């Protein structure tokens, strides 16, 4: 399975959530609402989830193995860095960047 497109849908400077991302696989399947979060140890990718119960969240979609997680995360971070640079050049609050891999 190959990542064929990454879209950075929103970039935010304030708060811990830095961006909302959509990733397309094999030009046939897309996962929306992946988040880039600023944690204590730096940025990380949070897969889309839904609330179950009072305070628990469960992933809706997620990679099965660490190599796929690493590939997804590296591709997302690469697109995020490009989007930040382009946003700085354009000075817009809402941003849409598409990267075909």
Helix tally equals: 1
Structural domains: how many: 1
**Going across the major beta sheet, what is the strand order?**
4-3-2-1-7
Q: Write down the Rg.
A: 14 Å
Q: How much of the residues is beta strand, in percent?
A: 35-45%
Instruction: Return the CATH architecture.
Output: 2-Layer Sandwich
The coarse silhouette is: globular
How many beta-strand segments?
7
The CATH class assignment is: Alpha Beta
Within the CATH hierarchy, at the fold level, what is the topology? Answer: Arylsulfatase, C-terminal domain
State the major sheet.
Answer: 5 strands, antiparallel
CATH superfamily: Stage V sporulation protein G
Distance between the amino and carboxyl termini: 12 Å
Mean pLDDT, to the nearest integer, reads: 86
Content-based structural category: alpha+beta
The secondary-structure element order is EEEEEEHE
Q: Helical content, roughly?
A: 10-25%
Q: Give the low-confidence spans.
A: 91-95
């Amino acid at each position: 399975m190959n990542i064929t497109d990454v879209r950075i849908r929103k970039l935010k400077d304030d708060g811990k959530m830095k961006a909302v991302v959509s990733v397309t696989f094999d030009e046939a399947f897309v996962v929306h609402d992946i988040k880039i979060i600023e944690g204590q140890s730096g940025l990380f990718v949070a897969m889309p989830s839904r609330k179950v119960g009072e305070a628990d969240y469960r992933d809706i979609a997620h990679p099965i193995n660490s190599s796929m997680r690493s590939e997804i995360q590296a591709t997302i971070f690469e697109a995020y860095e490009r989007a930040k640079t382009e946003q700085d050049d354009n000075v817009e609050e809402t941003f849409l960047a598409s990267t075909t891999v």
